[in-house]
Every structure is written in C-alpha cells, then in structure tokens.
Design a protein that fits this description.
The chain is an alpha/beta fold and 262 residues long. Helices cover 37% and strands 22% of the residues.
Amino acid sequence: MVISDLDGTLLDDTCEIPGLNKEIIAQFRKQGGLFTLATGRNSYSVKRFARELDLDLPLIIYNGAKIVHAVSGEDIFSSCMDKRDIEQALELYREFPLDPIFFSEGTGYVFEFTDKVKIFQRRDGIRLALLENEADLMKREITKVLAIGESQYYPEFRRQFYEVRGCKGHLVQSEINFLEILPEGVNKGTAMKFLADSLGIKLNEIVCFGDNSNDAEMIQMAGLGVVMENAHEEIKAYADIIAPPNTASGVGIVIRDYFLNK
C-alpha cells in the first residue's frame, strides 16, 4: 500500500495533481496496488483530489485526527482536542501574532477573517464560519487548530504550550507558516497504523511519501519512507529514498521506477 501526503508531495506548487502522477497511480492500482492519502486538509478540501484519482480506500485527514471513507465521507476514526488545551491555546493566541482556525465537523471557525485566513481559504477551498465569541467555540468538539503566522514565533509558542502551561496536545509544523495543534497522541503515523490494522496490512508493507515534519512519524513507521527533494532537511534524515521534487512528479516517478510491473 502506498500512502502519500498532498501539499508539497503529490501536488505541484499550484496545488494540482500533475498528469504523470495521475497516470502512474492509475497504472499502479490497475496492477493491484493500494493507494490513499494522508493530509492535514479536511474532508471537504481533500475530496476533489480523491475523486480525481478515483480512490476507494479510507483517507487520513487532519494530520491523523480523522480517517474517513473516500466516497461517503463517513468517519472511520475520529479524535478531538482536550478542552483545557483549547483554553490555553486561546490565551497564547492573544500573545502571539498568529491567526487560528478551529476545525469542527468539517468546518473551520475563526474569530476574524484576516488576510492570511482569506488566502488560506482560497487555497484550500474550504468552508469557514465566524465565531461569535469564545463560548461559541468551547461548546464545539474541535478536531484540530491551525495557526497561520511567521515561523519565528513557533519555538516560543511551543515552549509556553508545553513547559509553561502543561498542555498535552500534539504540536506540529505542517507548512512553513502553519503551526497545528492536534489531540494528544495523534499524528499521521498513529492513523496509518490504525488504517493498516483495519485492512490487515503490515506496516512493513507500506510505502509513505512526505515532505514536512507532520509526515515524520508515518515515514519512520512505514516499511519504506520516501521524502521529496523539496522537503525540509531534517525530514530527509528519515528517508529510505529521496524522490524528485513535487514539481517534477516525484511520487509518480518513484512508483513507476520501483513498484510498477515492467
């Protein structure tokens, strides 16, 4: 089974799936290979890519906080954040120049439609709604929080979140300007194991593609970890194979060269 990240991995820099990737994945699946996605995006944002590839396996979304059926969108696995972590995060967002988006039941909720939030909404094509107040937020079950802002603030945010405030959620940088909070113990690797167990597949039978720190656990746990040439250097240390960059259809090239029957 092959599991691929989306942004910076399967998608090119225009957030589209290159034709070669589509062609090779179709051939791989025709030969009996299994293929699915593991992404930080929500179900609404990822479903068009699943349709393009005609996928039928469950999809790992929200960086592992949910697994959903590719066709129906039905939840197969779901985890929510601890309320205390959300309260502590709210206080930190008042101290740092970060714009948070709180995801619940397929919708992103914000306190303000800032320029950064609007750009994110256009890029991912997601539904966003305005929160009335913090009480409006706290009555919801939150799957994850994504904060948009300069990465120079992330180390101190991380220190305060864990060391000062004693929070338990999983902090992960999914893109250069995205810092996410996931439920405790949740990542793409744990979701991959859940999915593999449910399908009767061993971890050493899985190939994972990724490019960023939110892909680290699944790349390390998979039988073969493939990291894109455009990835951060620290993630390349986990790679069994370095693939050509996302702009050169690296996912398709590796599948073609290593896994297609000649």
